[in-house]
């Protein structure tokens, strides 16, 4: 048993650092940028044709929060090649597993995190907006200098939880042939016929990664809250 563990560990960890962590980090960064844009668009007070844009973003959030991530991966990787548009995509939209995974994880993360950011912005008292307007600041200046820094502190715990969840969700990338940690454990299992041992081992590595990330989350929360006086 120990020989299997020792032989398998480097392969699984290599896949973790080569695919699992990069996919999670890249997808989260892109998703976070998309989430911020989505939240700001949905909170915008602009009227007229801009309402159509808000409707598109609202539909995007609804769509990705209402469907399973695994189904989304299958649609992007296996389904889009059959979406043939004459003159644009005559042979369908064919994406590599890596690209399909990044796109899907980013869109899914953006949809969920946008609600977190939107709620964080709404949690800032309206009096701060009014005070900033009274001294002549524009909406963009208020967001950049006053609202977003506070919203970041409020949204940090749930956003960190979303990232930790994304690290675990990357195991679904095995379904579209990305050779991340779970896929490697499946390949090794097919060779040694030890599913309980291999799946327990890969679960341990996911737990270790998430434990490290949880520690980083705790440090960031303390750093961003060190000037906050606890309520009495």
Structural overview:
The chain has a domain at 22-178: Orthogonal Bundle (MetI-like fold), CATH 1.10.3720.10. It is 77% helix and 0% strand. The protein has helices at 2-43, 50-66, 69-79, 97-122, 126-134, 139-169, 181-192, 195-224. α1 (2-43) runs antiparallel to α7 and α7 packs antiparallel against α8 (195-224). The termini are far apart. The model has no long low-confidence stretch (mean pLDDT 92).
Secondary-structure map:
Elements: H1 2-43, H2 50-66, H3 69-79, H4 97-122, H5 126-134, H6 139-169, H7 181-192, H8 195-224
Helix pairs in contact: 1-4, 1-7, 1-8, 2-4, 3-4, 4-6, 5-6, 6-8, 7-8
Give the integer mean of the pLDDT values: 92
The rounded distance between the terminal residues' Cα atoms is 55 Å
Alpha carbon gyration radius: 22 Å
Helix content: over 70%
Q: Could you please say which CATH topology of the domain at 22-178 applies here?
A: MetI-like fold
CATH architecture of the domain at 22-178: Orthogonal Bundle
Strand percentage, roughly?
under 5%
CATH superfamily of the domain at 22-178: MetI-like
Largest sheet: none
Which regions have little confidence, pLDDT < 50, spanning 5+ residues?
A: none
Order of helices and strands: HHHHHHHH
Secondary-structure-derived class:
mainly alpha
Summarize the structure.
The protein has 232 residues and is mainly alpha-helical. It has 8 helices and no strands. The chain has a domain at 22-178: MetI-like fold (Orthogonal Bundle), CATH 1.10.3720.
Sum up the structure in keywords:
232 residues; mainly alpha; MetI-like fold; 8 helices; 77% helix; flat; L-cystine transmembrane transporter activity; MetI-like
């Amino acid at each position: 048993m120990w020989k299997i563990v020792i032989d398998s560990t480097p392969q699984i960890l290599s896949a973790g650092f080569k695919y699992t962590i990069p996919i999670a980090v890249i997808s989260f960064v892109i998703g976070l940028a998309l989430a911020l844009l989505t939240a700001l668009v949905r909170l915008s007070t602009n009227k007229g044709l801009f309402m159509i844009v808000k409707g598109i973003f609202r539909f995007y959030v609804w769509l990705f929060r209402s469907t399973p991530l695994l189904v989304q991966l299958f649609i992007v990787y296996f389904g889009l090649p059959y979406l043939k548009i004459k003159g644009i995509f005559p042979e369908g939209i064919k994406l590599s597993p890596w690209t399909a995974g990044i796109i899907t994880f980013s869109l899914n993360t953006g949809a969920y995190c946008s609600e977190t950011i939107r709620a964080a912005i709404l949690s800032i008292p309206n009096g701060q907006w009014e005070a900033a307007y009274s001294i002549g600041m524009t909406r963009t200046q208020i967001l950049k200098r006053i609202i977003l820094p506070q919203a970041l502190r409020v949204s940090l715990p749930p956003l960190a939880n979303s990232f930790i969840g994304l690290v675990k969700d990357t195991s679904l990338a095995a379904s579209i042939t990305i050779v991340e940690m779970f896929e490697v454990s499946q390949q090794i299992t097919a060779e040694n016929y030890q599913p309980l041992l291999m799946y327990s081992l890969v679960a341990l590595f996911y737990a270790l990664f998430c434990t490290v990330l949880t520690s980083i989350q705790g440090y960031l929360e303390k750093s961003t809250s060190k000037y906050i006086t606890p309520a009495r």
